[in-house]
Write a structure and sequence with these properties.
The complex is a heterotrimer of chains A (565), B (327) and C (307).
Chain A: E1 4-14, E2 19-30, E3 35-40, H1 46-53, E4 61-70, E5 73-74, H2 79-85, E6 90-93, H3 97-100, H4 107-118, H5 123-136, H6 142-145, H7 155-167, E7 173-177, H8 185-202, E8 205-210, H9 213-219, E9 222-227, E10 230-236, H10 237-242, H11 247-255, E11 268-269, E12 276-277, H12 285-291, E13 300-312, E14 325-337, E15 341-346, H13 352-359, E16 367-372, E17 375-376, H14 383-388, E18 393-396, H15 410-421, H16 427-440, H17 457-469, E19 475-479, H18 487-504, E20 507-512, H19 515-521, E21 524-529, E22 532-538, H20 539-544, H21 549-557
Chain B: H1 2-29, H2 33-38, H3 44-54, H4 60-73, H5 86-121, H6 126-140, H7 143-157, E1 170-172, E2 175-177, H8 182-214, H9 218-225, H10 230-268, H11 273-283, H12 286-314, H13 316-319
Antiparallel strand pairs in B: 1-2
Helix pairs in contact in B: 1-12, 5-6, 5-8, 5-10, 6-8, 7-8, 7-10, 8-10, 10-11, 10-12, 11-12
Chain C: H1 2-11, H2 13-20, H3 22-39, H4 41-44, H5 85-121, H6 123-138, H7 141-155, H8 158-193, H9 196-204, H10 208-219, H11 221-245, H12 256-264, H13 273-300
Helix pairs in contact in C: 3-5, 3-13, 5-6, 5-8, 5-10, 5-11, 5-13, 6-8, 7-8, 8-11, 11-12, 11-13, 12-13
The chains are: A alpha/beta (565), B mainly alpha (327), C mainly alpha (307).
Amino acid sequence: MSFFEIKNLDIEYQTRKETIEASKKVSFSLERGEIIGIVGESGSGKSTVANAIINLIDKPGKITNGSIRLDEIELCKNEKIIQNIRGKKIGFIFQDPQTSLNPLFTIKEQLVETIQTHSNLNYNEAEKKSINLLKEVGIENPKKRINDYPHQFSGGMRQRVVIALAISCEPDLIIADEPTTALDVSIQFKILNLLKKLTIERNLGVIIITHDMGVIAETTDRVIVMRFGNIVEQGKTSKILSKPETIECKSLVMSVPPTNKKIKRFKLLSPDGKQIQDSSIKLTNNIIKNWGTRERSNKKLLDFINVTKVFDEGSIISSKNSESKVKALDNVSFNIYEGESFGLVGESGSGKSTIAKIISSLISPTSGEIFFEDISLHDPKNKIIKNKFRGQIQMIFQDPYSSLNPRFKVKNIIAEPIKFFQKNIDNEQVNKNIYDLIDIVGMSRQSLERYPHEFSGGQRQRISIARALATRPRLLICDEPTSALDVSIQAQVLNLLKDLQEQLNLTILFISHDLPVIRQMCDRTSVLKNGMVCETNDTESIFINPKHSYTKELLKLMPKIESII
Amino acid sequence: MTNYFLKRLLQSVLVMLIVAFVSFSLFNFVGDPVHNMVGQEASAEKREEIREKLGLNDPIYTQFFRFVSNASKGEFGLSYQLRRPVSDLITERLPATLELVFVSALIAIFVGVFFGVYTGINREGFTSNFILIISLFGVSLPTFVIGILFIYLFSVILGILPSFGRGEVMHIGFWSTGFLTFSGLKALILPSVTLSLFQMTYIIRLVRAEMMEILQTDYIKFARARGINQNIINYSHALKNGLIPVITITGINVGTLIAFSIITETVFQWPGMGLLFINAVQFVDIPIMSAYLIMVAFIFVMINFIVDIAYYFIDPRIRFKEEAMVE
Amino acid sequence: MISKLIYNIFDTDIGYSFRKSKIAILATIVFLIIVLASLFASIVAPYNPFDPASISLMDAFTPPAWSDGGNSNFILGTDQQGRDMFSTMIYGSRISLTVGFASIIFALILGVSLGVTSGYLGGRYEIIVMRFTDVQLTIPSILMALLVDGIARGFISKSLHNDMAIYVLILAIGISEWPQFARVTRAATLVEKNKEYILASKIIGLSNIVIMFKHILPNILRPVLVISTIGLSQAIITESTLSFLGVGFPPTNPSLGTLIRFGNNFLFSGEWWITFFPAIFLVVLAFSINLLGDWMRDALNPKLKAR
């Protein structure tokens, strides 16, 4: 009999309009010493299933059917038993280390309390155990740090504390819900290794919930693929990722950007879910003619020279204290040629977003020069000329849910920049433009009459792209445009961007923390760390022959889906 | 640490100066101080003489400086109407108001926090909803209506509690207290309950909102996932987090109570500062008005300062502003 | 067309919440009745209490119709001058509502503009506005209103003050209420201004004014709506408190508070109805507004998870 088993789990959510089945007949099992992954896109139900195991599903959801068995004890719907088991036999790790710890209690207080809840240890014994736990999860100087408060730890350290809390009462089963999604790649690597180490040393059964295929490949023994509440396929990770059987699973694996080569386009599932298709958009000659495409050339479109940006924490009395100043960019230089796709890659705090904001004139540099086609963007006196060039540089953003004004209809969102730059344009022309744009991004004309909240994340990004293209920009800045999207949607949007670049000869500045995506999208790339450029080169050269130690490090730590195939 | 306190101190002084300036402007620009002092019959020379004596022909900043230094000594001049030094009047009346406000504050805070926590933790249920409706009703009742109602019920119909005055008071030094006599305590009941009601209902709703929000945070969820007893979560974890904003509320609360005491003192003819102030407004007795303003502002500012200090010791995030250490 | 609009509103989540809450519906109905009665006071009230010809001292102190000595001509009795309580209350509520609405509108316009501009533009301007708001928020509104009223009295002669009472009160209460609008709007603006659709507008090059009033303002109306409703009841209570204290509306043009003030004098001598009915009326008015505001706050709050 397996150590842990779920059979035919059904979970339902009752909203006022309908009943949503978050989980349908979900069944799987787990053994000790094994790490199993549940992967799926948003809405797949993976988190719901995880929460169901310890009966912490948010209302109005509830388990309607099924069995959850741990070591021969039936857990399903048995609140009394589950209360005893939480923490003691099952440890749970949440996604965001920032909000998982109570900010008003020290680490010691939180650890000791948890330990004493499930054991008879006295205070001193519990304290000693806590210090050992911190050592085990890799926190240095545990005796001193145990008296600190959560906000005194960095993100990765906090997640280690969370793990320490989860294993503090010697549970047999650990459930980790997106444990590394909020962390940088280098820290993610260490946390996942920690989990692997603990699994072996303590003979645990571990369930990892994630949407990241790379994490699955590097960490799990078996994987369960979910989609819309159903398990579409499950089995050994190596097999599922190399030879997926179902069409849904195939499409999921195919959408993941490869880390070891550059492909022309992502192959996608057709809308009816039955076959793989190649879906490049074909812009009509009309649109291309209206666009007025330019030739790819050796001309520099953007010149970013020795730019430094220092942020000062605002106050009336500016302090001479260097504590409150943050140096976001330190002497950064690069240039972008007409018609190419240039990438900026780095972890959080590397300064990539700051660069985007400076180029788009949202903020001004502290020092340095920026030239857009020989017009200086950094000179504040150049305001009038600068404003003329605003239409030439446009941007699309990361969060599809806050990048569109919820009170505007889609057509007005797209029309606004058109009307702003061409003040005397008549309505018919505006409409023509809007129709062209909505066609370009592959959405129906009926969408124009709707409001943003009626659309999904991927569709909203398309609308953002349409808005950005409305002024026929020469440079399109993409600031983490797909980081908040599911991997299959990401593939669609990236395809769209590739098509647009090819057929309209757009110059693109692509910013991301995701190395495989950069490899797929960019001709040349700069690697950034803490506001400084480590390396700039052709993208392929960076991946095949990295020169800087940081680049090498990033490439080594990057989770690779191919690692298991 | 000293940085934090110094900044707060500086802010307090700034606020006091602004209030002093408003007060000062009241003095000088609302009506004519000389006219108010000597009436209509005085001749032009007499007026000019008084103007010189009061220093009203000096430049503004000199006058302001004089005003501030006088105020800090507690000197506010003579009341137009009662012709007594304002500082005397204040000393007489202050204890009455402070005792009233103190007792009301205690009632409002204890009852308010208790019910706020209860309804925050038990969101559903008849008792909770009942308390909420009552509290909403309480917010809709103007303080003076409550006062009148109480008087009618307890004094007129039942006749067990006095409807006006402080009862017997004992004098300790310059302070007159009603705490030490039976009649003093009896007289305190109705006004303090009246005064506390509005604040109490406000606190209930606020604490409830805080508790509900906290109970939905990730760290509470994580505590549940670790198997910690729900009661401990409610009354130790959540409460501690929930009390931080309550401290700010308490600060503002006392301020509001002082303001509302004007109403209560009027209804119950309680001989405190509020009654003094209301009469002053009706007769445009500027010295009393401006003195009251400064006194009250001083109390507010002091309380806010104490609240800031309390915050410092309770919320570790303010205490340890060091940036997180890198891995 | 209109029916479709109403249907659409009712079909939204908020509309659904409204339909489900019997309390909200009841409160709205009561409130609407009072407002309509005040608007059409001349039709609804059986008498005009300001017409000297219609009052007679002989009718003074008549108790309500259902008690001894009552008169069916005066359902709720008469006051010390012989004025019909019911009519005086209706006219009084008209005054209370006028002051309430006007002062809140004043506070709203002032507070929201300052809040949005200070939140969006930031810098020294924001810090200055915030200081003002903070300082004024430490002073309770009643005190603020008293202060403004006191100052006004110093400037205007007593008789003129009585005629101008309504304007002074609107100003006084409006000034005392604007900070909470400013504070809430600023907080909401700070959240919105970092959202990416605002960044997109900036990149396009739209001017600050356009961004503030065309983009940000429509998206922060929810909390403003909640505060307006609750503020309205606060304004009405403040006005009646001021009138009760004797610094509000004079007896020649009484609001509900003034009526209660005078009725108070007769409480001990047994003519309870002169104070009682205006007090009940006032409380019912405030309560219905508060219920509505309370429901609105819960319905519009995205943080409270749906049940």
